[in-house]
Amino acid sequence: MNGLVAFGQFELGRLMRSWRFLAVTVGFPVVFYLLFLGDRRPSEIVDGSVAWNVYLMVAMCSFGALVAALNAGGTRLASERATGWARQIRVTPLPAGCRWTSASGSG
Predict the structure, then answer these.
(1) What pLDDT is attached to residue 43?
(2) Measured on CA atoms in the order 29, 34, 37, 43, is the torsion positive or negative?
(3) pTM for the full model?
(4) Which stretch of DSSP H or E encloses residue 90?
(5) d(Cα 50, Cα 58) in Å, to the nearest integer?
(6) Quick count: other Cβ atoms within 10 Å of Cβ 97?
């Protein structure tokens, strides 16, 4: 399990160094929140007992999580496979549970 935690920390650190990833997943929701917040009064009730600013914050958090999930996978995995990184991870002595699923399932 130690290898899995270390690999997860490595991947998370790599994502945090990518300014494009941070701009899309953190920057866009913050900008959209600030832009859309001006449309209504913050205390205006939208759905039952939920205030507009709370409703909008949850919507922007969901947007950021969705974009992060969509961005983190396919393109990076394809570029890693093209450069040989996926093969390098497969030949390491890590147990199969410490590798990501698509790399351990192929080859």
Answers:
(1) 74
(2) positive
(3) 0.53
(4) helix 85-90
(5) 11
(6) 10
Distance CA 33, CA 18 (A): 22
pLDDT tens-digit profile of 83-107?
877 777 777 777 766 665 444 444 4
pLDDT tens, residue by residue, 4-46: 788 778 877 877 787 777 787 788 888 888 888 777 776 777 7
Dihedral sign of CA atoms 95, 13, 63, 73 in order: negative
Q: What angle do CA 18, 1, 70 make, to 5 degrees?
A: 35
- Can you tell me the distance from the alpha carbon of 86 to that of 98, in angstroms, rounded to the nearest whole number? 13
The count of C-alpha atoms lying within 13 angstroms of the C-alpha of 59, restricted to the half-sphere facing its C-beta, is 14
